[in-house]
């Protein structure tokens, strides 16, 4: 326990960055789980509504559904009268914006994974310098207490930096894997939506109570 208290500022900075990384990881993980939907089930529901000519209802379903898949379908439905080239450009822009949102803060974990070992290494050198300074100040009758405390603090900072970096690497990998899976769902959603719109011409909006 004394090693922890002897770690100094760099040790507590390392701990703070590790805690921040954990908060970011949990937040991103919960967000990705929230927006993870079955693209085929979602599209089937939207297509069924569009088959009835209820475009506003289809857009309402997209608005109520969180995540990039719904955003892509909403843009596709809203611009379904555009030519295919223009529609693909619109969807590519939307997909890029949604991907940036997905990767928000995730890259911070990669930065922390590289920064934390460096902080641990700096802590090691600082602790070593303090230990040597303590030995030099007390020479020739050296009291090892101050030197040992400095070395222990340096070791604590190094260990904390390595543990924090390992966590950040693992957390970043998990988020990247889940983001890649969601990107595949986005690609599938765009392909199925474009195929449906190409096969189904736009119909006039039908409202409840309208006469046949």
Please name the defining characteristics of this protein.
disordered C terminus, mainly alpha, 212 residues
Mean pLDDT, all residues: 83
Q: What Rg, in angstroms, do the CA atoms define? A: 28 Å
Number of domains: 1
- Share of helical residues: over 70%
Structure description:
The chain is an all-alpha fold. The chain has one domain. It has 8 helices and no strands. It has helices at 2-5, 8-35, 39-51, 55-64, 68-78, 84-102, 106-138, 144-199. The chain starts with a helix and ends in a 13-residue tail after the last helix. Mean pLDDT is 83; it is low at 1-5 and 205-212.
Write the layout of secondary structure elements.
Elements: H1 2-5, H2 8-35, H3 39-51, H4 55-64, H5 68-78, H6 84-102, H7 106-138, H8 144-199
Helix pairs in contact: 2-7, 2-8, 3-4, 3-8, 4-5, 5-6, 5-8, 6-8, 7-8
Write a concise synopsis of the structure shown:
This protein has one domain (2-199).
């Amino acid at each position: 326990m004394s090693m922890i208290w002897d770690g100094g500022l760099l040790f507590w900075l390392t701990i703070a960055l590790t805690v921040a990384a954990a908060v970011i990881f949990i937040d991103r993980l919960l967000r990705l789980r929230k927006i993870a939907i079955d693209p085929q089930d979602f599209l089937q529901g939207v297509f069924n509504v569009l088959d009835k000519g209820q475009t506003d209802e289809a857009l309402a379903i997209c608005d109520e559904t969180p995540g990039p898949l719904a955003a892509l379908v909403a843009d596709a439905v809203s611009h379904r009268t555009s030519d295919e080239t223009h529609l693909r450009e619109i969807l590519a822009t939307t997909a890029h914006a949604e991907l940036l949102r997905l990767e928000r803060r995730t890259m911070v974990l990669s930065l922390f994974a590289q920064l934390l070992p460096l902080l641990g290494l700096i802590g090691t050198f600082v602790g070593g310098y303090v230990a040597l300074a303590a030995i030099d100040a007390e020479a020739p009758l050296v009291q090892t207490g101050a030197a040992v405390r400095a070395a222990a603090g340096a070791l604590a900072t190094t260990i904390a930096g390595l543990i924090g970096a390992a966590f950040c690497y693992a957390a970043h990998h998990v988020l990247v894997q889940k983001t890649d899976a969601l990107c595949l769902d986005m690609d599938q959603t765009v392909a199925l939506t474009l195929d449906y719109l190409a096969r189904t011409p736009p119909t006039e909006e039908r409202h409840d109570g309208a006469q046949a």
